[in-house]
Amino acid sequence: MNDRASMLDRVRAADFTLIDAGLYLNTHPDCPGGLDLFRRAQSERQAAVRAYEAVYGPLTVDAAQATGAWDWTASPWPWEMEG
Fold first, then answer.
1. Looking at the whole model, is its pTM more than 0.90?
2. N or C: which end of the chain has fewer CB within 10 A?
3. Cα distance between residue 39 and residue 33, in whole Å
4. Are 38 and 68 in contact (CB under 8 A)?
């Protein structure tokens, strides 16, 4: 697995944990452990996304920089990436 794929896996793992913790909190809103897990996953996801975007560019359209010219389409599309 290359570095790009590894970094994306880190984002996906944090996404999964964040969504799972959110679903758990829907039925257990006062659970301190659930809230802690959600906050940790949120921080992990933010760090993983920042690390990925620093190297490979925006991961989602809301992170695209609209300075000078629209550069969202300048990055390779998922099917253009290796592996």
1. no
2. C
3. 10
4. no
The amino acid that residue 15 corresponds to is D
CB proximity list for 4: less than 8 A, separation 6 or greater? 55, 56, 81, 82
Structure tokens at 26: 């829907």
Dihedral sign for Cα atoms in the order 10, 64, 73, 57: negative
The CA-based dihedral angle spanning residues 54, 78, 17, 45, taken in that order and rounded to the nearest 10 degrees: 10
- Round to whole Å and give the CA distance between 32 and 41: 14
For 7, the 3-state DSSP assignment is helix
User: Residue 27 corresponds to which tokens in the numbers above?
Assistant: 């039925």
